[in-house]
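Quick one: structure for this chain?
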Amino acid sequence: MSCQIPEPSEPTTTIPPVATTRYRGDSLAQMTTIGVGGPVAEVVNASTEAEIVDAVSTADAEGRPVLVVGGGSNILASDEPFDGVVVHDTRSAIETLMEDSCGGAEMRITAGTPWDEAVVYAIEHGWMGLEALSGIPGSVGAAPVQNIGAYGQEVAETLAQVRTWDRQTRQFRTLFLSDMKFGYRDSILKRSICGGSPRWVVLAVTFHMRRATLSRPVGYGQLARTLGVEAGERAPSSDVRAAVLKLRASKGMVLDDADRDTYSLGSFFTNPVLSEEQAALLPPEAPRFGVARHDAVNQIGAAAPTIPGQVKTSAAWLIDHAGFTPGYNMPGPAALSTKHCLALTNRGGASGEDIAALAREIRDGVRDKFGVTLVPEPVLVGLQI
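Got it. Here's what it folds into:
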């Protein structure tokens, strides 16, 4: 039987993306969602791939630090001046590469595109696999670096390839899924970052998805309850998006200029991955989950198997039960969100060191209470935690 190539999909409804950036200026405080960071020596607002590569290559030749900024939702920077070049990818474009009934769909997206626009594009075209990642701030270029994930989905499950500029070899390089070495909130791209500066500059990302207006099976209990379905059932992708946005907003994880709880970097610490022996030392009521092995996924939309001997627990649970409840440290300038104890927020006038000091206090408190050392998720520029 031959594959039928359908007519291009038409959106059945218009789905507005959520805001993903708050400022744009000449200091890192104006380029990040948490609103801290010092002035920068030079900002290049690049509108083409050639301009990005030229700015990075020129800075490298001059021995100047380079920081590539998209939505600024995962950068915690010092208030000291950044004596280098900040490259802001201003491109925003999504291109459909393929859409047929056998092979699924592929879209290529420029790195500067706001992430939520990619989610909306996929849902409107009837493609499955990104719906639970709705509302995550930041750019498409940052998504594979962190292997962003939420509510049972991760970027690794739909990513096909990443076009990059390799600063070490001074060449363009395409990294395929097998090259990415994805892990939980980790990738080969993230492991190349030193002092906020990456080896590979992401230029474009290609995703491969199944054609389906229903979501992937909903495996996250809280999301299933919000949707009113049983775990493992599917729901219309647009409904999943609406439910995810509702849940994220309830936790202060959707940007809102009027809400200081959203002046954050999202989840500040990653969920700890432990051995079975380490997990056995936690209280019985502590959450325990399997750890996905993404390099074993070989079917579009399939769930990754888990890694034997590894257990993931909840950083939020550990923080809360170590005594750092929502709103901790208020009315200080840096405090935990009043809605979710995994978000460190700038209540107004916080410095980068204020946020870092609070993070260190929480990390040390959790380690003393449970023997688990939390790992920060944001890229640190001029700060240590």
